[in-house]
Structures are given as structure tokens and as C-alpha cells.
Batch of 3 targets.
Target 1
Amino acid sequence: VIVDRLTKSAHFLPMREDDSMDKLTKRYLKEVLTRHGIPISIISDRDPMFASNFWRAFQKALGTRLDMSTAYHPYHASIKAAPFEVLYGRKCRSPVCWAEVEDAQLIGPEIIQETTEKIVEIKKRLQAAHDRQKSYADVRRKPLEFQFDDKVMLKVSPWKGVVRFGKRGKLNPRYIGPFKLLAKVGTIAYRLELPQQLSRAHSTFHVCNLKKFTIVYH
């Protein structure tokens, strides 16, 4: 799934987990670049494909900046407008509201001014939505920090499809570990020392997926 951060328009490209990087690149060129041009930046998860040397070199050659999100901690915002209207600068005419959509007669300078004003307004709405969500999260968030010598448990749910732990469904453990902390990344993430069986996954995790390891004596 590829989503434009400004307009929220999306492309859904059918891909298999074992598809090659060559196939991903061809789909990307055909479905995204030929329609929308070269993006300034791309935010993605830390899938091995997106973190590969080829993908990094390919985007660097295009002049696109790659930003990797913190593992398993996405967020969404609202633009308060239909993606079609934001992307094309007009409402979508459909059988349901055919008469409500008029053909706008705009010349070049007017189109540029109107588009610029819409972009400014959308950015304001995105920032407002982001600030609002952050304020909600700050109220619920409990300050959680670990010391360098601490060991932590890792929440299992993000690992679905990456590795199995012998049991499935309700019998699957909620946390695995303990794992040694290697470093703090920014203010909300930590890098862990993972065993070989988890080598396919990125080792940096948001603090919400960790809890301190404690020994219970009976």
C-alpha cells in the first residue's frame, strides 16, 4: 500500500511476500513514478526490502530521501477532504451527485493560486490533527524509561508472520525475552540484542512494545 502524505490518495499494489526486489521496483516505476513523478521523501517500515542496499541506492539516484519509521508504531492524520478532490483540485463527479459538480473555468495563474491555497490549508489541518492526536497520547502515556543494564521483554504481537514461537492463537505468549538493551534511540525507542532466530527483524522498538523484565521468587 502506497499512500501520499498530503492528499491521502492510495495505491494498492498486489505483491507476494516472496516477490523479488526487481518486481517491486518495476511496480513502483509503473504505478507511482509515471503517474505522480519522483517523491521528495518516502516514509516506510523497516522491511528488509526497503532497507536493502539496492532500494537505498535506487532512491538516492532519484534524489528521494528515505525515512524509516520506528518499528510497529504508525499513526494517522486527517485532511478533512476527499483524496480525489485534493489530488486533482476538483470534486469527483458521480451518478449520485452529478448535478452538484460544476465545471470550473480557471486559467493558469488562478489554478496555481487555488492549488497553493489548498496545499497551505491541508498542511494546517494535518498539523492540527497531529497536535490533537499527540495531546490525546500524552494524556494516556506513562513515562517509561529503561537503564542501560536493564533487561526487557518484547511484545509478541508485532512479530506475527515473522517468526513462530511453537504455539498459536491464545496459547501464544504475549511477551518473549528477556533481551539485553544495547542503546536508546531518540526519546521513545530502544535497540535490543536479539538472538539469531530473530535476525530477520529490525532490532529497534518503540517503548510501548517493551516492559521491564523482573524475576519473581516463590
Note: The two ends are 49 Å apart (CA to CA).
Target 2
Amino acid sequence: MKMVQARLGVLAALAVVSLVACGSETEVLVSTTAGTITTETTTTTTETTTTTTETTVVSEPSFVATLGTPVTDYTDPVDIAIRAITTPQSYIAERDGTIFELASDGTKGTEVLDISDLTIAQGEQGLLGLAFTNDGSTAYVNYTNLDGNTVIASFAVNTDGTFDESSQGMITTIKQPYPNHNGGDIMVDTEGALYIFMGDGGFANDPDRYALDITAKPGQLVCVTPGGRRLTQSPMIYGLPMSVKIVGKK
């Protein structure tokens, strides 16, 4: 009799477990609205609770993306700039101090500048930046000189697209404390102001914290006068995200 009661107790416990296990069910509904999948989970106990989760599906792009043929003619390209003339022309800057036109078929075109004798192309140094004035008549370059400092210079651009090396104008020289993290990018805004993006000064773990000192040139965004003429004072410096102030701008 005790054995029968024990078996009945086990069966009763199993029945309770079965009821609990069957008390929850999940139903997945896919809506007819494109881009949305709706999942509804209904849990049945003493009351019914419905939870709805919507997931947005990313649509396919409206254009067909194709992979072009990689350009392999360059050794160490660091920047590309477009000269906005009647027929825009792209130029590739190499870290060794040379600049080439980018041919329409994507291959290396004519060499337009060679200042390899003026720069150190090692580590994170060399010819690092290229930009043009809005009318395309002048090119700006950012390179590391033989003393390891940043030089911003200008070159007149000839009608055939080559640079007049004899026209080099020294806009400013900025001392670099270390040979790495020298920045390099330069750009011209719609009003002709030239921006110089400086690195943080370099060395392991950024020991000098130049970016926290707005009186220091490393670690800042430097802006010089439109036209790129040599300044009679140091370039205006401001640390992001401070407001922009441009030296000599009318």
C-alpha cells in the first residue's frame, strides 16, 4: 500500500511538471511590412502576457557597388587631393617626397613635384599632406624637413598641372618634439583658409600631453591666413572643440 501511494505521489509530481512546461509557448510572426520582423511571446499562467519585439532589417543599397582594379604603381601613398579646375584632376602624394597625377584609368600619371631631397621619409615622417587653393593655382604641402620639423609650403601650379619647384613659399615651420605622431593632413575651406592638423607630439604614452595645452602647437588644429602668405607672427592655435579663429582673415 505504501508503495502504491509513493508511485501515485511521483505521478502527481510529474503531472505538475508537465503542466508547468506546457504553460509557455512562443509564436514567431513575420509581418507583411518590409524591413520589420515581429516576434510575439505568449506566456500562459494565471494570466496572459504578450510581449512584442520589432527588429529593423537593413535594406539593400539602391546602387550596385563594384570593386575596381587596385592601383599598384605607388610605393607609399599618403594623401590624395583634387585640383578643382575645369576638368578636375586628382593627385597622389608619396611619403618619399614625390607627387604624381592620377591618370584617368587609375594608373600613375606624370610626376609633378619631387622634394625628396628636402624631407625625411622614415618612421612617421616625410611628405604627409597635400591640398590646393580653391582656384587650383597653388598647391600646399605638409612635409618633415631634415631637422625633423613640420614645414608647410606652397607651390605655384603650372597650366600643364606640374608644380613650379622654384616658386616654393615657406608658410610656416612647426617644431616637432619627437619623430612620431606628426599629423600631416591639411585642407582649405571655401573661404581659402588653410588648416593644419597637428599630431600630439608623439613618444610612447604621450608624456608631454601637448593637446591639453593650447599654447603648444602639437596636439592642436592650426590655421593660417588665406593665400598662404608667410605670417609675421606664429600661426593661430586653438584646441578642439574651441571656436575657430582665423589669423589675418578679413
Note: Residues 77-238 form a domain with the Neuraminidase fold (CATH 2.120.10.30).
Target 3
Amino acid sequence: PKYLKRGVPPRDPAHCYLSPNDQSDNLISLIKSIKPDLMTRTPSPPKSLVELTLRSPTVHLIGPANEENPNRSRAILHGRVKFLDQKVKWQRATLSFQGRAVLTHEGLAMAGISGGDEAFSGSEYSQILEICNVDKELIVFDGQSEIEFGLHLPFDLPPTMRTKHGFVEYSLIAKFSAGSFKTARAQSDVIVKRHYLPNGAVVVPTNEMTGCKDWFEWTMEVPRAATFEQGEAVIAMKWSCEKERVEVMTVETRLEQTETIRFKRKNTTTSLRLPPKLLPPAIYTPPSFTDPLDTHFLRIPLIRELTSPHIYSPFIEISHRLVITFKFTNNAQDITMVYPIIVTDLPDAQASIVINGDDAVPIDLGLPEYWGALPKYEDLQEPIVLL
């Protein structure tokens, strides 16, 4: 036979047929031998046509978000947009600063409301409120490679925050169009911070209060605000015991943090105060022999890692109270007083903030800040004496 003459070995008919699986394996092996990374290659992302850059993604606001705030000023968000492809002739560029407040299903679950009772039960979140939508159109000239901008923001924005019950977030969106079919989009997150004191040189307002409970009389001066940079809140206090053989043994001071959820149900706004978070107490032991004229300084530590600053948003509020407990000798009944305080932080040293007037004057720390039906700060000045 011819194949014997050519030196080709005879083929076994049993090995001439390959199953479909064997054919697939052979094909894959062949492809991998040609280009090993062909089977694992991922498509490269499309080339970006524009670039959005912010000078600083953080916006600093000073004071409460109300009309009475003497330091009320509008912040400016600076940045630039850069055109990466000079072949594209952009005709229109629009900036949109958007903010929203969101209450999660877990937040409503804390209020004892099932998701089926809400109109938002089919969505990822329970209630969504648009805080702002500020638009600005940029002028695009032919051959321009980049545009710098400054966007004025409202002064009453709630700060960026996030808990398991809700959050507030902001973003800046830049949209570009070149004709009817060529469009581009860029987005950057923006962080809004609200500080209730512009710097450490500000004179913090204090309230002097006096009270009497049976045989115990006191006078104290409590600050209306304290900062994390100070590290502590200091209360100056005088007292006198008019009961025989009874003296102040210790004074326990602690910071109490409370989260309040506000939600709407059937056109009614309801507030729910969650159980407070108790921070580590500070124990003050007065000297053995004290005079009613002696001034005692109670120091409450402010630990940033354990405490959130004061936050007021449409759905979530985080507030703080000072809890002062007097313990007496001879098994006399304890006396506890509760006093509200604003815990805040100071702006960064490099932050650019416009402040009207002199920083060294007392500023207004009045509440409420927005439209919530909460008692004003003046209504909370008197301490609550707990029996």
C-alpha cells in the first residue's frame, strides 16, 4: 500500500472518532497555546473623555443652619473640568450639585413599622428626601482644554453623616454634550461638615443656673458647647448641704449620646428617641473639708473615637446631654441633673471659611436648626432633676 511506501504508520479506525467533549478540549488547548491570556482577558474600560477635579472635596459650614445664625455664609465649591480628547468639540457643560437624606428600612424597623406599610417598601430605602439640587452651566469656548469653576452652595445644608438607620450624602455631577449623540458624564463625592465654632479663640457661651432640692442647693456654670480639640467639657460648680452629717461623697459626670429618628407616616411626622449611648463616666471626689464658697470643676472627657459630633438632618439627629449625679454620705438619696450640650469639632487649619464679623464674640448656638418640631434650646436650659 501507498502509506507503507511513504513511511506513514497505519491508523486504527477505533481512534479516528473524537467525542464532542474531546473536540472542545482540543480546541481550548489549541487556543491557549496560541494566546494563553485569551480566555481570561477582560475588556478594557472605555476611554474617559472628561475629568472632574475638586480643589477640596470637603465643604465647611459654620454655626446652626437657621436664619438667626450670625456666621451664616454660603460656601463655594471650587474645581475644574478637563477635556481629555481635543478632537471632540463640546458644546454644553452643566454642573449639578445634588444632596439627599435617606432613612433605611432598618430605621423604620426600630420605630416598629413594617416595610409593607410604607409607600417605599419596594425600594432599597424606606424614605428619601432631596435636600438640594443646584445647577450651573459652564461656558465652553472652542479649543478650551479645561474650565475652572466656583459653585455657590446653600448655607443650610445638613452635614454628611451615616448611621445604620439613615444617611446624608452629596455629589457633584458634570454632564457634557457635543451634538445629539455625543455625551459624557463625570461625578465626584462631596463631604459637607458643619462646625458650631469657627475656631478655638471663640468665647463659648455659658449658662449660670441655680437650684435647690430639699436640703441640697447648687449653682453651676455650664458651657453650651464643647469641642473635641479641647478634650473635655468643664463645669464650674458650687454647692451646700443643709442636712446634718450629710456631705457630697462623689460627683459622677458622664456624656450621654442619643440618636433620634424622624419619619413620616400617613402625612404625620413622628420622632423616635433611641436608647442613649452611655460614655465612660468621670468621678470627682471633693476635698474632705469644703466651704459653700469653694468652686469645684467637673471635667467630662470628650473622646472622638467614642462620640459623634452634634448632627441635625431631616431624618436623623444626634444630640448630647451631660448627666451629673451627686452621691452623698450616710445613705442620702442621690440627685441627678441632666443638661444639654452641643459637642462639635473645629474646622481644619487649611480650610477656607468666610466668617462675617469678629470671631472673638459669642456666637448663637440656638436650636432648632431646621424645620423639625423640636423644643428650642432656650426651653432646655433648665436642668432636669431626676429623683
Note: The two ends are 116 Å apart (CA to CA).
